[in-house]
Design a protein that fits this description.
The longest helix is centred in the N-terminal third of the chain and has 17 residues. The protein contains eleven helices and twelve strands. The chain starts with a strand and ends in a 5-residue tail after the last strand. Helix 11 links the parallel strand 11 and strand 12. It is α/β, with parallel strands linked by helices. It has a six-stranded parallel beta sheet, with helices on both faces. It has a four-stranded parallel beta sheet with strand order 8-7-9-10, sandwiched between helices. Strands 1-2 form a two-stranded antiparallel sheet. It has two domains: 151 residues, Rossmann fold (3-Layer(aba) Sandwich); 107 residues, Rossmann fold (3-Layer(aba) Sandwich), CATH 3.40.50.1860.
Length: 279
């Protein structure tokens, strides 16, 4: 905005008060929300959890694209200025289409193959993700570019998302299922394990206990939060710290969202809504 007074022009640095939008197939994207509020404390955020249709991993690409568009339309109806696709599967299937369809900036997820490949000393890395993520262009291109000479132990984490959605990430059932996926990686001498689904950081402590200090467990949510900040700054979308708020919408059980949010954050000005995540 430009103001002219007595022949002089003054440029005012306008603050962008619209919220950031985040969506996921369920509550997994709350791991991304947690990192974003830490690095962008002045930003308001609206979160959409499509738990009714969770998990996205086994669904067809067409289904995932349609669900992603529905979630985006909902967030745009809430006047979101930038949207974080906090779901690896949705990113793999829909991010290119979303960027073509809407002018709003999008931030996507992808398994952190690059840092794992660059950091490995054994030449063996483990990737724990959904089938949809492994089928996606981003995973294939990143693997081909950065891990051509790296041995990758790929594990499809079937059942893990459902455990998180049902508040069972700390259960014996979760521990036994994790052993099924992590033990082959340990036997394969991996020294880097990538958590390729936003639900999986809820198992971070259990996985870390299984693999010990010699194996790094990579949570891509941290890098995504940093990228979100960079996009906010470069697009001149920064907000001030006045009236920061957080809204959570879900197609599933709102009590599940409440319990997880309260577990991972002590932030105030939080509102919860049961919603179809539709306009």
């Amino acid at each position: 905005m430009v103001f002219v007074f007595y022949g002089y022009s003054f440029y005012m640095d306008m603050k962008e008060s619209r919220p950031i939008g985040i969506f996921d197939s369920g509550v997994g994207g709350l791991t991304v929300w947690k990192e974003i509020i830490n690095i962008l404390p002045n930003e308001s955020i609206i979160y959409c959890a499509d738990s009714k249709n969770c998990p996205y991993g086994p669904k067809s690409e067409e289904e995932i694209i349609n669900l992603s568009i529905k979630n985006v339309e909902f967030l745009l109806s809430k006047n979101c200025k930038i949207i974080v696709v906090a779901c690896n599967t949705a990113t793999a299937a829909a991010i290119d289409i979303l960027r073509e369809k809407y002018k709003t900036p999008f931030i996507g997820m992808e398994p952190a193959v690059k840092p794992a490949a660059l950091k490995t000393k054994t030449g063996h890395i483990g990737i724990l993700a959904t089938q949809g993520t492994f089928n996606g262009r981003l995973f294939k291109e990143t693997s081909r570019k950065y891990a051509e000479n790296i041995e990758m132990n790929i594990q499809i984490g079937a059942g893990l998302v459902e455990l998180v959605e049902n508040l069972k990430s700390d259960s014996i059932e979760a521990e036994n299922l994790l052993k099924k996926y992590i033990n082959p990686m340990i036997k394969d001498n991996v020294d880097q394990i990538v958590l390729g689904c936003t639900h999986y950081p809820f198992f971070y402590n259990k996985i870390k206990k299984m693999v010990g200090e010699k194996v790094s467990v990579i949570n891509p949510s941290i890098a995504v939060a940093k990228h979100t900040k960079n996009q906010i700054v470069s697009n001149k979308l920064r907000a001030d710290k006045k009236n920061v708020y957080y809204e959570f919408y879900t197609t599933g059980d709102i009590e599940t969202v409440k319990k997880i949010v309260k577990k991972i954050s002590n932030k105030k000005a939080i509102s919860y809504y049961s919603s179809t995540c539709e306009k």
